[in-house]
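Help! Submission page says 'invalid entity' but I think these are all valid:
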Amino acid sequence: MTRFYRTLLRLYPSSFREEYAAELTRTYQNSIRGRGSFGAAVAAIADVVPNAVAAHWTILVQDLRYTMRTLSGSRGFAIATVLVTALGVGANTATFSVADFVLLRPLQFPRPDEIVRLCQGPRQGGGWGCMNELSPANWRDVKATNRSFASLGAYTGGAMNLVGGGEPVRVSGQQLTPEVLPLLGVRPLVGRFFDPATNTEDERTAVIGYGLWQTQFGGDPDILGKTVSLDGTPYVIIGVMPSQFRWPREDVQLYTPLLLREDQFEDRNNTFLQGIARLKPDVTFEQARADLGAISDRMTKEVGAEMDDGEVGFSFFRQRDEMSPRYRIMLVALCGASLALLLLTCANLANLLLARSAGRERELAVRAALGAGRERLMRQMLTESLLLALLGGLAGAVLAWLTVPLLAQMVPNTLPIESQPTVDMRAFGIAAVLSALTGLGFGLVPALRVGGRSGLAALREGTRGSGRRKGLRTMLVAFEVTVSVILLVSSGLLIRAVWRVQSVDPGFTPSSVLTMSTPLPMPKYEDVVPRVRFYEGVLADVRALPGVESAAYTSGLPMVMTGGITRIQIQGVEVPRDVQTSSIRIVSSQLFSTFRIPIRRGRDFSAGDTRDRPDVAIVSESFAKTYWPNADAMGQSFQTRNRTWTIVGIVGDILVRGLERTSEPQMYVPAAQADSILGIYTPKDLAIRTTRDAASLIGPVREIIRRNDPQQPVSNVRMLADVVGNQTLDRRSQLRVLLALAVLALLLAAVGIHGLLAFTVAQRDREIGVRLALGADPAAVARMVVGEGVRMALIGVIPGIAISFVAARGMRALLFGIPAADPLTFSAVAVLCFAVVVVACVRPAWRAARIAPINALRAD
Amino acid sequence: MSLEPTIEGMLPLPPATLHILLALADGERHGYAIIQDVETRTDGELRMSAGTLYRSVARMVEQGLIIEVAKRRTRAEDERRRYYRLTPFGTAVARAEVRRLSNLLRDARSRGLTPGVA
């Protein structure tokens, strides 16, 4: 029983146990005399457990009190430590939370790795994502012959005018084959999905998104069976999706059956379907790719001749990979940056604690000499480090919680994921544990050193630390400089890239142009005559408004509608395959003056360009140069969409696809001559160049549209300048994050250098005092200190530059032609680093130069 | 290191502390003897366990109320026993506490709260 009691005694703090174990045991033995062994065991437990807890608590309270006292004596150290930990933990958690949300988190569908996307593309190679949509015939053939897919569906997008519920609205919708929703593995929140293949009554049914149900129908519980008008056709609502379902894009709120007419299967080049499939459970992605390769070989042989390219190929990828490689690189860069910051935090923390430990060794030696055990001292240090880590971690959590919503702005909204990332607790845990370990590890150093040798030696050594530790601290500071150089170079290169992108001339003048969409519903405006009547009516009234310089309709705004491609043929001329495409826009008159696209030759469209007149087109300069490199393009004819067009004007090129992408040559045709053959591309965007405040125009223009067609909704009211500004929005927000991390890194490095130098000067004050007493020049002393700082920086800058160069090569896709070894960025960063280092040196150098020679004589 | 404790700052004493002071009032004792003394005086109502006793002892030594006696009994059995006795400060604190308690008792009596009366 005594042995049992002795074992239990281990629960006590060891200092207490060492002191009283023998007495406790003896007293216990006395007190259990005459009891049975069960009673004795109960007595032992009842005695030791509560008292051990109480004894630990007493020590904790003592240590905390002591810690508060010592920390309030060195408030600078406490604040610096908490801040450094908070920054490291907070920034790292926030960045990683967002990156994980976009990069790593699986889609919200069951077995998401089985969901793949299928598009047409070149047979060999090909780029990222969906290269070209599928034609119905090719989709049907893959569906019939593949051996890899458990289910293959198709969908196509398109917004529709919805009348019913509240005000008429424009809603983003998708037309789906019946396979699509079931293969995603989702179920409706209420109601059911459509299946027109088995039930022809389902042809005019719709499933709506949760958001639309709430906003347009007020969450009406009797929504099922309600009839609404979509582009003028009645549809019955049969289902509502769950609130977290946002597919294929965040804004899609309406799903209707995709009905393919037999004539749509005739032209294999009529590509407008997105394929989506679920792999059979036992088929891997690579096996499916091989299967598709075989299918494309077979189809090329059988129907390749029908294809414009002479071949059938597919682009094939996992649904979750539908993210541009640029986002991916950027996110990897941000993760790298945040990891670097975490390492930096640990280095800085270690440095702070090492500096403090040197100052505390004497204090601890005194306590040890007065009889405090090593265990007791370590416990004290542990409490102190833990308290600091806890405070830092808490502040870091707050920081992460505040910054995640800011970072979330850079998440592309095209991903089918829930819209808002939240703070990732795993990331927070990792960052917190890592900084806590650093804090604990380096916090224990002084206690270990005091315990490891005789207290007398520590007393004798006084406040002068060992040289070896100085070397370690120098390496830590140099490492901090390295990390900041890498981050600064990366952000510097990206800043240069953004500047370059922003200075790209889009070919038109976006300022002072108000735009809005009035997409005309199709059965109602199928015929070109009512369509043109609507455009002409609206344009005439808008142009008459005061402050309106010019106004025009176009089938797509540049950088918003980036596709809209047509194939150009010229009678008697063999056009090389790679330049056969051009972007086509159907426009009203005045488009070029509204966008300020210069008319180089010929004329604008006019009221005379009607359907019964010869078909005319206006083309861009690159169009003219591509097809008539050695002749005058004016008056020439070409074929597209089975019609022959004659060029009546040549205008400047614009960047249709965006500032950072190559755009095809452009051609424009007048709205009045573009009847149903150009169906899906009918003009819908109204653009108005104004000389007064654009906001004051919105009301009158809406009124004009209502006068011309009371059922016509207006959507996407925005300035053209914002459209162009959006081009660099992602870049700018990503850059801001990276830059913030880089500045933090530089600040931390500066704190590190300053701290180390200040510490060195304080340690050497007697030596410096002797030098000054012997007639050394104070300026030389100051120079010596600065020299030491610069040396530390150099040790860090050189590897920093080398690693930056490697990192920059990895980011080349983001650099928009800025070379990875951009001399301007590298030299700017080097100069900035040295400037910051010198600033960090100023105070310690000043101190050193002003040390009084009397210090040399002063005792400790 | 710790702040110099004052007599007033120590009051009121926890019951266990007062009992230990009382047990040591008539001479030095070892741990188990303290427990037995307290138990006898309280008719078995307060029976301290070894842990409770030595936590109190540790704190009281730190506070300077009691002190370990250097001399050891010669009998082999008691060789390793530690004996404690009151310090002058401990005696003063015990007196102050008793004074406080008797004042309290007098006040209570003067208001008709006598022991044995409900």
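Support: the input was valid. A stray whitespace character was the problem, and the output above is from the cleaned input. The longest strand of chain A covers residues 149-163.
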